[in-house]
Amino acid sequence: MSNKTRKFSFALCLLGAIPLTALSGCGLFTPEKYLLSGDNPDDRGSPGGRFEHTIVQHIQCELRVGLWNASQLPNSGWLRTYGGLVTLKLTVQDQSALSPNAAFLTPFGLKGVDSFSLGIGGSGSANATRTETMSYNYNNGELWKEAVKDVRAGITDCQGFQQGVFISSDLKIGQFIYDKAVVAGASGPEAKPFSALQFEISFLASFSGNVTPTWKFTRTTVNGSGNLLSATRSDTNDVTITLGPLNNDTKALHNAALIGSATGTSVNSLAH
Predict the structure, then answer these.
(1) What torsion do the CA atoms of 47, 51, 57, 60 make, to the nearest 10 degrees?
(2) Total structural domains within the chain
(3) Were both Cys, which of 17, 30, 75, 157 would link to 22 (CB 3.0–4.6 Å)?
């Protein structure tokens, strides 16, 4: 679907074109990942690829900054022996609904009966969800070496990647690592480090619109109640990070979090 067609079809959904064919792009086809820019490559490559690459680099940067800041605390050397498992999940959902209705009023002219009213209606809906998941792991020792290079180059934060809201904002990953290092260090040099640390964050953005034109005639009212046409677009970005020894126990903890998140998403979808 071209950018022009995609934008036009979604505009029809939101502005209220009546024919069912106007629902193109709002649940009948695979959703575009990016509503405004589209998925088609441009002269700079793929907009989606650039966005996802920036997010991956952003997460890696926050991990490096967190490790560097935590290293300034006592008894934090154990963090460098750990690794990080990261899963980035991007979900786009398009929904649309068509619900026409009409009411007819017919005079009867019978004694005691002034009129007869008949209401008719129907509904139809479409829902399409697109989910992309990326999983990768880091060795904290390698991240530490990169952090040292960053500091020497004068890079001590990740503001260069924080160019928007939601997942493009400060994800607080560095703060999470630093705080846990504070907790572990407060117990003294003999304290055991955490067996694993886990961080999860989810962003949900939802946009919706509806239209209900009403026609009134002498004996008929069309679409007198409810929404004739509605459309909803939702974008969900999930990040799950598990820090710990890169062994089966850490992987099992990470996988359990992913399963729990998927189950919760499925339950919410059924509820709606």
Answers:
(1) -150
(2) 1
(3) 17
